[in-house]
Input
Amino acid sequence: MSNWRPCATLGLLRDRAEVLAAIRHFFSERMVLEVDTPALSSAATPDASIESIAVTAGPQQGPLFLQTSPEFFMKRLLCAGSGSIYQLCHVFRNDEQGRNHNPEFTMLEWYRTGFKMFDLIDEVEALMSLLIPEIDTPATRISYHDLFRQTTGLDPASASRADIRALAGELGIVIPENHPDDGLVEMIFNIATASWMKQHPAVIVHHFPASQASLAMLSPEDPDLALRFEYYVDGLELANGFQELADPHEQKRRFEVENARRRERGLQTMPIDEHFLAALDHGLPACSGVAVGVDRILMIRNRQPDIASVMTFPFSRA
Amino acid sequence: MATYNTNEFRGGLKIMLDGDPYSIIENEFVKPGKGQAFNRVKVRNLKTGRVIEKTFRSGESVDAADVMDLGLQYLYNDGEYWHFMDPDTFEQYQASKTAVGDAVNWIKEQDLCSVTLWNGHPLSVEAPNFVTLKIVETDPGLKGDTSGGGGKPATLETGAVVRVPLFVQIDEVIKVDTRNGEYVSRAKDE
Output
C-alpha cells in the first residue's frame, strides 16, 4: 500500500512553522539580511567526509551538484559586500541516513561580519535558548583538547599512534589491518564523549585540532588549533561554526588536501569552486559563520526519537 | 568469503569479529556535520551470548558469518551429544552440551527447536517458547486450594524444577513458558 501520508503530525508541522517564524524574527530584529542562494552548483565541497549528490540539468554540460551547505554562495555574497546574512534552505548529503540523518534536511546558516568565534557562540546560545526553552542554563563551554583529555585520559595532540590505536581498540572501534589512522581521533572523540555529553544539557566544544579545521581559520595564538566550535544538546550535534578562513591560498590548499584524501580513499575528486576562490581573492570581510540543523531542533523541542518524525516526507516517503 | 558493507548493517545480520560469529542487535549510523561517519553497533556473540558495542568506520566491509537458523527436531541424547534432525532433508546434527545450554531443561524427544548452525555445526539451541511436560515429583497439595497462590516445587520429566500451584499433582502434564521457566497451565485445560 502506498504510504502517501506525511510522517510529521499536524502539531509538529505547526511547531516547524513557529520555529521558522521565530528564527526570521530573531534575525530581523538584529538587522541580519535573509538571502536565498541556489541549491545547484557546478562545484561541490571536496571535503572527503561529505558526499555531494550529482545531477544533470540541461543546457549545462557536465554534472551539477546539490549543495551540502550554502557556504560558498553565502561567502560570495559577503565578499560582494552584503554584510551579515542568514539563510534557511534545504541541503543534500549523499548516503547520510539514520536516526538523526536524512539525505535532505533543513539548514539554518548565518554569517556575522566583525564577529569573532566567541561573539558568534554567544549569539548561537541566544538563539538556542529562544528555540529550546528547556535549556535554562548557559551551555558548558569546553575546548576539544580538554574534553578529549577528560574523557580518555589522552592528549590528542601529543599521544602516539600506538596509544591512539590502543584507545580505539578499548572503545570497541574495529580497525582493520593497514587501516589508515585518518579519522580515528574523530571517532574516538565522538564515542568517548558521548556519555559525558548526555550528562550536560548543552555543550559548546571549541578550538578543534587544526587537522579538523574544515573552513575555519587557525588560531593566531596557536596554529595547532582551529577557531571552530560545535554546539550539542543531549549529545546531539545541533550547530557547527567557524571564525572563517579568508586566505584564498590557504583555502585552495585545503581543497587540494581534501581532494588528495578522496583519491586515497578511492572517492571521486570534486571540482573546486573557482568562483568562491575568486571571491576570496577579492576579499572576505572578517566574519564568523555557523550552520544549524533545524530538524534536530524540532526533534529536541518535541522530544521526538528520530528525525523522520519531524519531517513531512522523509526519504523513505519522498 | 562473503562480506557485508556497513551500509548493509541491520538487526539480525550475522558477522565475524575476532574469530567469533556475532549477530547485530542494533545499528546506528553516526555522522558528525563535518567529519568521519561511522556505524555504532550492538552485537551479540553467538557462542557466549555476551552483548558488546563495536564501532566501524562507515564504508568498511566485514566478513559475513556462515550462520543460519533451522527448525530441527530433537531426536535423542547419547550421553555426550544431543542429536537433531532436519524434518525436511532428514539430515542429522549433533549438538554439544554448551550449544544446548538451558534448552536441556525443557526439550524432550520429537520437540521442534530453533537451532543456530555456524559453518554447519550447532552453535545454540532454543527450546520452543512453550512446552508440555509431565510432573514426576511434587508434594501432595492441600485439599481445596484452587487459587494457585503460594505454590510448590515440581520436578518435570526432563529434570527441570518449576513452581506450580498446590492443586497440581504428580503425573499431570503442564504447559511451561521456557523463556522464564514459569508454569502456564495444566495442559488439559486448553
Summary: DSSP finds one helix and 16 strands in chain B. Chain B touches chain A at residues 7, 17, 28-38, 40, 52-60, 62 (CB under 8 Å). The CA atoms of residues 105 and 158 of chain B lie 6 Å apart.
